[in-house]
Amino acid sequence: MMRTLLSQRERARREAEAAAAEAGRLREQLRSTQSKGRQLHSDNLALYEKTYGREYEATISPFSAFQRRERAARLAELSPPEKLLLAVSSLLLSHRRARRGLLEAATT
C-alpha cells in the first residue's frame, strides 16, 4: 500500500513539474508573441502615418483649407481659354516624361 502511494505521489510530482515547465514555456511564448504584436503595431502605425500623414494634416490645417479656397476662387476668375491652358500645362509639367518630351520638342 505504501509503495503504491509513493509511486502515485512521485507520478503526481513528475506531472506537476511537466505542467510547470509547459506553463513556463507557454508564458515565454506569450511574452514573445505580445512583443512581436507591439512591434508590428508600431510598424503599422508608422507606415500609416507615412502613407496618410499629409492627407490627414491637409484636412485639419486651416492654412491648407484657406489655400484651397483661394485657388478655387482664382480658378473661377479665369476665362475658358486660360483654364484650358492651365489644365494642359499642369498635365504636361506634372509628369517627368511629358516634361522631357516637351523639352526635346522645344530644342529641335
From TrEMBL:
Residues 1-42 are annotated as: Disordered. It comes from the Eukaryota. Residues 8-17 have a biased composition (Basic and acidic residues). It holds the Pfam family CASP_C. One of its GO terms (biological process) is intra-Golgi vesicle-mediated transport. GO terms for cellular component: Golgi membrane. Residues 51-100 form the CASP C-terminal domain. This is CASP C-terminal domain-containing protein.
